[in-house]
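Board work, copied verbatim: UPF0314 protein LL253_12395
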Amino acid sequence: MAGKTHFCKRRGIGALTASHKRRNRRGFLLAALIAAMACGLLFLMDRPPICTCGRVELWHGALDSGNSQHIADWYSLSHVIHGFLFYALTRWLLRRPPLGMRLAVAVGIEAAWEIVENSPIIIDRYRTATIALGYSGDSIVNSMSDIAMMTLGFVFAARAPAWLTVSLAIGLELLALFVIRDNLTLNILMLTSPVEAVRDWQAAL
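↓ predict structure ↓
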């Protein structure tokens, strides 16, 4: 009898593990589907697929009209940090769902931001409140890269010790601050409560 009970418990654990793995895979597939839907919505919003300059650069480091038009730029660092933050948030709020499902939630949040960020009201807000005077929104390839960068940050945070993730987030913020006088923290500040002195300092670069 004891042997049978032990066997049943082992079967239950195995079934639970298999169910967990299935939900995890479904979460990763759902994350990919959400990203694909965001891509489709951006097409419907008439966002340019690639930079209107007609080329696609892997890295665009200059602070000019090419920002947010190519695959990666200095603002890509902010999206990696998004991944760090979304991992922490979903781990705190969604303890039971597997990693794949939590990633799907994170991709949903990031995809929603990409849609909102390319709406006329936010584009105008960037132009009036930040140093992005000529900002006209992202190309679709850049938006998809932003979602990928967030995913990279999320997966990194899921695998790395918390101290390393926090240290890297601080390092990325300081690097962007030093190079372009902008980062995620200042971006949020200038969008929500612009400080003229900060804007003047950024524009002097």
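The first helix runs from residue 2 to 44.
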